[in-house]
Amino acid sequence: MQVPAPFEYERATSVDHAISLMERLGSTSRLIAGGHSLLPMMKLRLASFDYLIDINDLHDELGYIEAGPGEVRIGALTRHRELLESATLTAAFPIFADAERVIADPIVRNRGTLGGSLCQADPSEDLSAVCTALDASCVIRGPGGAERVLSMEEFHVGPYETAVGDGEILVEVRLPVRPGCGSSYEKVERRAGDWAVVSAGAAVWLDGDVISDARVGLAAVGPNTTGIPEISTALRGQTPSESLFEQAGAIAARSCEPATDQRGSADYKRHLADELTRRTLRRAVERARS
Amino acid sequence: MQVTMTVNDVEVTREIEGRLLLVHFLRDVLGLTGTHSGCDTSNCGTCVVWLDGEPVKSCTVLAAMAGGHQVRTVEGLAKGAELDPVQQGFMQCHGLQCGFCTPGMMMTARALLNRNPDPSEAEIREAISGQICRCTGYATIVRSVRWAAVHEANAAAAVTETTESPEAGEIDNAGQPAGSVA
């Protein structure tokens, strides 16, 4: 029987209340949302805290998907299942539904949240790759209601480490909406619900038949989700073609930093980074054209 | 700390540690041992219960988090002496093998049928994809859920007193739905 080390349980009633609790309790406190990353780590005694602050009651405040003309805004407490079932989100960014279908399993998706996934910052975590591909911004609120807006590159500091400081909370993810967008996600896993061996997310923006912008995010091939600016540079201004996708795949394979582990060898993971980059770009272009 | 929640329609209040997991609260504090505890790592799904009507893995939910919420366990599946159609289906189609995964499987199946009264085999397999049965493949579990779906459709049709019985929902003498998944 695995149980976490002892801690005091507190329940927040609003975002500001959660922030004031964290201010009072300091770095020995941690927010718990869905808990499906944090509790397993605490049960394995890889993490322990004096206080857990339950923010599930903030779902009314932080659980939403709002599509505006310039951006889609998603509250940090939006659950995986809500992301998967949102017609609005799927219409704008089908990459989300692609990824959500292969994140954990339906029962875990009933609890786990977007913000929790991003803040866990697991190198193999899928939604960071999705948000990287979509050029998402993370809105972090701190004491006094002050907000910071960070890019995904700024948000991730290292494995399991983000820019969210003590007394701060990730409240929202913003996805810029630009015309001509297509997006797609692919994951190779050993069994249903497992972490990725490698996953890739791609988004392209077409202007006529020319790629005005393209972004690829890879998971499980480095200390954090890897965005690959070199691919964006290589694709901008080009017409989509199989040889162009091959070129992007080759860049992905040589740019990533996979480690050999129980899920596969570094060489195999590079091969996957190449192949999944091609597949997701191909699909993203198809979707942008349709 | 003190926690109050509703379990199978009964309000319970207990003094607990903050770190107590919901599965242990149900099994060890309330004595509801129908909910099983298997892998401890959110993988196997034998601890599935409902939190506010949705399946959750109770080994990965704190009992404190369920405070103020509705919990339903396998003990709350039957209506008095009348078994839920899902329970009947597991009996009819040998969905219970060793029985260890059965409570969690049935809770997921009931929640699935509440949302989707006529799920395909693929939809059933997707719904239980976060749960592990170590006896066989999942054929008899899938068949049990289909049995429940057909049984409920027939019962609903009987209530509306249609003069023609729907062919797709006929149950043959062996207790198998006609055209059931093989």
Automatic annotation (TrEMBL), chain B:
Origin superkingdom: Bacteria
Enzyme class, broadest EC rank: oxidoreductase
Sequence ranges assigned to domain 2Fe-2S ferredoxin-type in this UniProt record: 1-77
PROSITE patterns: 2FE2S_FER_2
Chain intervals for the UniProt region annotation (Disordered): 160-182
Molecular-function annotations in GO: anaerobic carbon-monoxide dehydrogenase activity
UniProt-listed Enzyme Commission number(s): 1.2.7.4
InterPro entries: 2Fe-2S-bd, 2Fe-2S-bd_dom_sf, 2Fe-2S_ferredoxin-like_sf, 2Fe-2S_ferredoxin-type, Beta-grasp_dom_sf, Diverse_Oxidoreductases
Residues in the signal sequence: none
Pfam families noted in UniProt: Fer2, Fer2_2
Keyword line: 2Fe-2S, Iron, Iron-sulfur, Metal-binding, Oxidoreductase
Protein's name in the database: Carbon-monoxide dehydrogenase small subunit
Native species: Micromonospora echinospora
Lineage: Bacteria, Bacillati, Actinomycetota, Actinomycetes, Micromonosporales
